[in-house]
Amino acid sequence: MSSRQPSPQSSERSPLLSRPEDDSTTGYNDQPDDETTRSVAGSTESVEGQKQKQKRWPTIIALSILCIAAVVACLGFALPSAVEEYAKQSVVFEPTNLSIDSFTSLGIRARVQGTFYLDASRVRNKPTRDLGRFGTWIAREVESGEGHVKVFLPEYDNVLLGTATLPPVKVNIRNRHYNRVDVLADLEPGDVDGIRRVAKDFMDGKLKAITAKVVATVPIRSGLIRLGDQTVAQFLQFEGHDVPAVPDFDVQRVRFAEYGLPGHPEGLKAMAVVSVMNDFPLKFDVPTLAFEVLLPDCQDDYLLIAAARTDPIHILPKQNITAGVTALVRQLPTSLTEICPDSKTSPLDSFIAAYLSGSKTTVYIRGGEQDENTPQWIGRLLRETTIPFSLPGHPFDNLIKNFSLGDVHFSLPDPLSETQPKISAVVKVLVGLPPDMNVNLDVDRVRADADVFYKGDLLGRLDLRKWQSANATKVDHNLLVQSIVKDAPLEIKDQSVFAKVVQDLVFGSGAALSVHASVDVNTLTALGEFVVRKIPAQGDIFVKPLAGDFQVPEIKGMEVVDTSETSLTLQAKVNVTNPTEYSVTIPYCNVSLWVNHTRVGYAWLSADVVPGPNEITARASWEVGEVGREWLSQYISGYNTTLTVRSHADSIPNFPDPRVEMTVPTPKMFGHQFLKETTMHLLSSTATFVLVSPFAMYVTSIAAAAYFNGTEIGTITWEYPFAIVPGENLTPKLPVDWNSNALGTIRDALGGSLKVDARADVGVRIGQWHERIWYEGRGLGAKIRL
Fold this sequence. Notes:
The protein is an alpha+beta fold and 786 residues long.
């Protein structure tokens, strides 16, 4: 066969070589001296080393390896063993274009284009180098017949990777004579199991180095001498930069939509564009291919979740590859959504949780049912190969835009049964739907675990683990999910944080609580009904301060319900205003009452408090000692008194002490002063008084004096009990001992009144309780009558 073929199109099986006899062709007579050779060798090795670092292992190993192996085989049996060694070390093949000409019924017809030459400077041993150059100068050309090359992988149990059939090749083998190679080779895949194992290690990033054993069988002739079929084996090792990394797939323009008849969807359609950079000099077209998308089940088997199909792909050397992919998801298999044994999640839960958190998730891809235009061997190879495919992490930070509680009602623990407070509320979850998701989505149940924080510290945990009925409403591009939650337990985790919240509610500017929740949603979609678990959500709840609109409680309906020798138990209706939008049920609450750092009693109540005005029934036990007696005397005398209300351990049973201490003005129990009116009778030397009391009592004794402008005008001493009923009471006529120096002043006021001051020690008895208190009144209007 001539070395000057007119055109590579003359035959698919013809050698397509060009051997121009120009200045670039170096003959034996042009050999430089040894020193120059060593210099060139060193330079060449340096250049080749740099080139080698820059090269990338071709996607199809056989394309370049097999061509080199065939030439090595030719040289190895046409020349003595020393020349064979020379050929192995000096041979250089630089591929310029590797492409797939067509897909055949058995494999691939690949086109290999490049430059082949021998470089003597690459041979390390000088005698071998000299002998090789001499032998190749003598032989000049070597020609092979149709050859067969097999590639084995020793590290994978010596499996057969592939077989290539090479057309005849004629090359000039003189030193640094450049042969432009353009041949068509038929490639057939080998052991499918071996290919699958290599592909999996490659996708898992475990393929750091690989060794290929190339075995070539070719008929050889040199000139007119035919040497018959010869076999040569060569080991080629690839590592470092020569082993390609897993390409970075860029998934773009992802869109979701239902497919099927309107109102009767059959499933979900996902459309995307996937792009990846082709770093190799490869050129070919890939036909439409079908794939199955799989997820592992509970037993690490695979479950089919979608059928995908690619558009035809045009691969060009060193250019970005773009492929359109369409996947159809029909009804999800039941085993995909069922909880795995000894677990709390299903296979779908694990996948969605990782995907929503932004972690890399893995699906598995294998070939599906190909169309009739796809060669059967491609379908079989894809069908028997399952490889992992990592989806890039994409955190859905704004999937749930807001998580809030409305119409909140707190129920404090019942001392007889419950150990935790409970919350009832309308849970509102605003889900942000991606704009490219044209899918009808409904929600019928939700549940959640929620941690409540205050100023970054954990306050407690809200238990919403029970499924609650829900409904969903489309709001613009969002989905508003609402659910009514009843009696969800709130576990206080940090008592000091709880105390800070109460302090800021009572005395501060309110409390901004942060809720961090993990939400489970039972969804109804075109794919069927399934649960999406552990969706992260966050929201804020602001509780208005009590002090902002605080009003002094109004007390009415005071009555004594129990007495002892040292204490009174009082009951009253208390009108209070709740300025917040939250309600609370208080089965029992007890606080202590303090005056000047001395505890004088307790108060307790049970109530349902709603936003706005409330009437609450409260009781108080008053233990009157010296401090209590003094305070009570000041109180009935109209002094501005205060009471300190302080919480304590078990103020609310089974609930942490809120550590509230609040000093408030004492609510008025009397419509007016205790002593409303006085009338002095001159002729009988008596006086009567109108007394106002919230409850019934007995006045057992009185020792009183009246003063006008600082001068005593009369005294009263009375040792006989009389009854007082609730409301206004007119006392009996009490004898008055007039001061003689004041009679003139009194007579002058006859028919009118005097502004007098009064001071009295009064004995009081209510049931078993008896006490003596003092009373002071200033500027009292005393009527003067005969």
